[in-house]
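If you are new to this repository, start here. Below is one unmodified record pulled from the training split, so you can see the exact layout before writing a loader.
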Amino acid sequence: MKTPVKTNTLLMVMLVLPALCFAQTNPKNVPQPPTDELKKFDPFLGKYKVSGDFANLQWAGTLELKRVIKSWYIQQIILVKTEGIDREFWLLVTWDKSTQKYRLWAFQTLPFTLEGDIRFDGDEMITEWDYVRPDGTKVSDSNRYRLTSNGQLEITSYRQVGNEPVTKIGFLNGERMP
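And here is the target side for that same chain:
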């Protein structure tokens, strides 16, 4: 007697499903967030009232850095609240164990997203990403985050186009909000 294909498939699912479910509910099999690597962000976490100048455009708003998605990621949200500028800039960062570096994804109110890296140099946090303009020119952007002695956040933005010298293109000053 032949067993119908549907019956075989159902039987296979019924045998495999409990094994998969058990692996997901066993606390020893649950991956853990990269806690040690993400601790480096702790001094910067919080919400800030910010103002700055980017490419000669004055703006103000808020910047928030926080842990999200069960502490697997650090999220940064910049909301510009200057009249006439409707801008949001979101970053999502985590530690990539396979490459042994931080990965950065940037989402913004522009028609493209960016992928980049974050690294730490002394007491500074540095975001970096490269992209190619439509004309083929390679561009490298970076931001250097640092906390002053009184807890103020300072971010300086830089750009290098092709082989030209690195130039400062903006700054942001932030005051931590309670």
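Two things worth knowing about this chain: The chain is about 15% helix and 50% strand. The helical segments are 5-25, 35-38.
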